[in-house]
Amino acid sequence: MTGRTLRVLSYNVHRWGDDRTALARVVKACAPDVMLVQEAPTWFGTRRKRRAMAATFGLRYVAASARNAILVADGIDLTGIRGRRIWRPFVRRRLNFIATQLPGGAVGGVLVLGSTRLAVVVCHLGLHPRGRIHEITQVLTLCRSFGTPYLLAGDINEEPDGPVWKLLAEEGLLDLDAGPTFSSTTPHKRIDAAVLSPQLKGRLRHLPATKPDLAAATDHLPLLVELSGG
Q1: Which contacts qualify for 101-104: CB closer than 8 Å, 24 or more apart?
Q2: Does 97 score more than 60 pLDDT?
Q3: Which superkingdom (predicted)?
Q4: Which ranges in the chain belong to alpha helices (H)?
């Protein structure tokens, strides 16, 4: 792209299963160039559903891995797309209950912003505490494989005092702190992240959507990142 700024929206859309009209209003209000989706719709007719979802936002569906997807606006050229299935424990235990987990994944691609070549990567980590450490290690391997500075965003499923955040800091990534992101109705946990390579310039933007739409659209609040190129 030829512009000097790029708007990237990271959003857990809760399988496109809540208020789709409110969700479309939120995304359109944010006007992203790139949307990094967690919990994209799946099962029967996966690609058809994801293309239909993207169309309601005025975007195009271009890439996915597991339940992560990347959507782009017209004029955005995402190249070198790479996806990775992420190992995660099949079961997790919480209190006295055992629940199964779906496979994880991460996907990314390369953009040119001004004179800056960068990658954008989306992930969604699991609910098994120790499993998340193995997952983020694999995600970071994918990020490094692009050979460029990168933005990594997604649902971390862990608050900032956890080991995943420590590994992100040890990687030298800049944490764009948006405050609590879950739940969308009563935000009290910060479990969604947007982190940048130190070579990149970026900031979080205020969400232009209304509070009722944010609450109705899905159970997470989105992160709207503005990247600046040289």
Answers
A1: 101/126, 101/127, 101/128, 101/131, 102/66, 102/67, 103/66, 104/66, 104/135
A2: no
A3: Bacteria
A4: 20-30, 46-57, 129-145, 163-170, 211-217
Which 3 state secondary structure label does DSSP give 86?
Answer: strand
Query: Among residues of the chain, what percentage have pLDDT more than 70?
Result: 91
- What is the amino acid identity at position 176? L
Locate 106 and state its tokens: 């991460």
Q: Indicate the length of the chain as a whole number.
A: 230
Residue type, 137: T
CB 222 within 8 A of CB 10: yes
The label of the residue with tokens 């997470």 reads: 220
**Looking at the whole model, is its pTM more than 0.85?**
yes
The alpha carbon of 164 is separated from its chain's Cα centroid by a whole number of angstroms, namely: 15
Instruction: For 49-94, write each residue's pLDDT tens digit.
Output: 999 999 999 999 999 999 999 999 999 999 999 998 876 665 555 5
Closest listed residue to residue 32, CA positions, set 162, 213, 222: 222
Of 229 and 213, more confident: 213
Q: Write down the domain spans for the chain.
A: 5-228
pLDDT of the residue at 89: 63
- DSSP E strand boundaries for 87-212: 91-94, 97-100, 104-113, 116-124, 150-155, 174-175, 192-196, 201-204
Query: Does CATH place domain 5-228 in 3.60.10.10?
Result: yes
Q: What share of the chain is helix, strand, coil (3-state, %, to 5)?
A: 25, 35, 40
CA angle 186/52/32 to nearest 5° reads: 55
Q: At what angle do helices 46-57 and 20-30 cross, to 10 degrees?
A: 60
